[in-house]
Amino acid sequence: MSASQPIAIQAPLASASGPPQRQERWWTGARGNRRALVGLALVVLVVILALLAPIIGRYDPNYGDFSQTLAGPSLDHPFGTDSFGRDVFARVLFGYRISIMVAVGSVLAAVAIGLPLGLLAGYFGTVLDNLIMRPLDLLMAFPPILLAVTLIAVFGTGTDIEILALGLIYVPIMARILRGSVITVRGEEFVEAARAIGANPRRIMLRHVLPNSLGPLVVQASISMGIAILIEAGLSFIGLGVQPPDPSLGSMLAEGRDFMREAPWVVTFPGLAIMVVVLGFNLVGDGLRDVLDRASR
Hints:
With 297 residues, the protein is an all-alpha fold. The chain has a domain at 46-54 and 86-184 and 214-296: MetI-like fold (Orthogonal Bundle), CATH 1.10.3720. The chain has twelve helices and no strands.
């Protein structure tokens, strides 16, 4: 090779699975986002309290000491007692268990069904898109609370029925969110590169399109958990959720509304408990959305 002949330097091939260092940028942004960290701290705290409820609560949430009815907050009863002498603190902790179970269970069920539907509809489009999305659009036309009440009226009350009802409500939302993201990603250059080298559609969808389309779905799932807790509390408040004497934050509000003046703690602490966990999930969702927006830019 002569000294005057230029040397060809081959640039490293970009990965077909997506933009390089995306996961590193995402994680770095997540650690620097205060809202996401505060929300995650609140959610983790609530989950720990729910898991350790039998230890921290000290009292049986369904045991009533009628000599301690409507007793104010004290060292023995940090949140006071209700009209049946039951410890409000213990009932809040066990109520968290039900709320978290319903929120996580319903969202996971919705993602398990909505994810493949949204992926197929977004990637293939045309006829398959219409076959999948039009029935889901019809389901979205029903008001969520009305659909939940209808399902509970048909199948009965209980935690499993609540998870089923809320999961069915969230399926079209999850499918539509992922479908929109997939439609955007399927036209990216790294997807076209995967097609050019002969990758089959199944591999392209699972290896290249889906991992780069999950961001908006994760954000929606986090926010949906907070909304699910509010819906569960609302159903329990009107008597269609968890049935007494099992503790539920919504039913605690319903039972304590007649004693708000003489014993405000019976509704204050359950209400604050709902506010804290919903705020945590909303902050996590907002923080993740900001992080993903920065990473995409």
